[in-house]
Amino acid sequence: MQDTVNCPICGDKMRSIRERKNIHFIGKIADYVERTCTGTNHSLQITVDEKTEQVDLLKISLSPNYSRFIIIDFYNQKCRVVLLKNNKEESILIPKMIIPDFPDLSKLKNKIKIYALFL
Ligand SMILES: [Zn+2]
Q1: pTM (2 decimals)?
Q2: Taking the CA of residue 20 as centre, how many other CA atoms within 13 Å lie in the half-sphere pointing to its CB?
Q3: Which of 85, 77, 72 is nearest to 45 (CA)?
Q4: Residue 111 gets which letter from DSSP?
Q5: CA 13–ligand 1 middle distance (angstroms)
Q6: How far is the CA of 98 from the centre of ligand 1 (A)?
Q7: pLDDT averaged per 10 residues in sequence order, the chain, 119 residues
Q8: What is the pLDDT of residue 56?
Q9: How far is the centre of ligand 1, averaged over its atoms, from the C-alpha of 23 (Å)?
Q10: CA 47 to ligand 1 center in whole angstroms
């Protein structure tokens, strides 16, 4: 996925923070730009490798209170659904890549439903 400065859901300019960091989740250290948008019914975070200008990690909340979200790892081509239940984190590995149909989040939720029936 290509980098974007505007939120792919609402179109607003995202907040960007530049930082060199080690993302344990994907196992990579790089100069990253982290872009975030918190809209009325969505919240998303894009982590872009500054050098390659490619999105390595995309995190989208699937519920307004951030109790469910999907993490799409473009770097390793893996997906994970994380849900918080009674202060515990449960995570479900999705055995294939899920590419969101921006700006429509309901299509994304339908794609995830096959793997995570609780949604
Ligand atoms: Zn937005």
Answers
A1: 0.90
A2: 1
A3: 72
A4: H
A5: 8
A6: 19
A7: 94 97 94 94 94 96 84 94 88 90 90 77
A8: 97
A9: 23
A10: 15
Alpha carbon distance 83, 112 (integer Å): 13
CA dist list (Å): 45 to 37, 57, 76? 7, 8, 17
Ligand 1 centroid, distance to 32 Cα (angstroms) = 20
44 C-alpha to ligand 1 centroid (Å):
7
Tokens of 35: 């872009």
The token duo for 10 is: 């609402």
**What are 14's two structure tokens?**
């995202």
Pairing of strands 68-73, 43-49: unpaired
Residues with CB under 5 A from ligand 1 (ion): 7, 9-10, 37, 39
User: Looking at the chain, which runs of residues are DSSP E strands?
Assistant: 15-23, 28-38, 43-49, 54-61, 68-73, 78-85, 88-94
pLDDT computed for residue 74 by the predictor: 95
